[in-house]
Amino acid sequence: MDTQDLVSRLQFFYGLELSQVRMYTLQSEAVTDPYLKQVFRHLASIEQSHVQRIKKEIEKLGEAPAKASEVIGPITGRILGVISGAISVDKLLRMNIELEQRAMEDYRSAINALDPAHPVTSVLVENLIDEDLHTAWFLNRLQ
Questions:
Q1: Taking Cα atoms as reference points, which of 120, 99, 100 lies closest to residue 110?
Q2: Is the overall model pTM greater than 0.85, yes or no?
Q3: With contact defined as beta carbons under 8 Å apart, do 114 and 57 qualify?
Q4: In the chain, what is the greatest distance between 2 CA atoms, to the nearest angstrom?
């Protein structure tokens, strides 16, 4: 993968993670169960760490995070958060599973396109692991 393609993918992940931060923050405000509130706040915090890691990698490549991502990410997250506030917890968790699974597919695709020794690979793998753990938690909660 050339540098420009890598920057483009990182910009995409930057926007994606911003959306997830906003979405989980709004979900934490929408649910009434205290434990779920804390879970969603914690997930937002994890996703914020992804934002920071990706931003750092974009900057290492001599670029700045895309302004479009800074606008689109929170707006998308807000829309999803508002919509999710009007549905049951089970449907909310199922929606989150779908979003996390899509994120995992995108992370896997980027990881597979990178040289395993590339420094960004480990960042993407760590984010993928977190997304996988989030999905597992949602699936477990549905049982």
A1: 120
A2: yes
A3: no
A4: 47
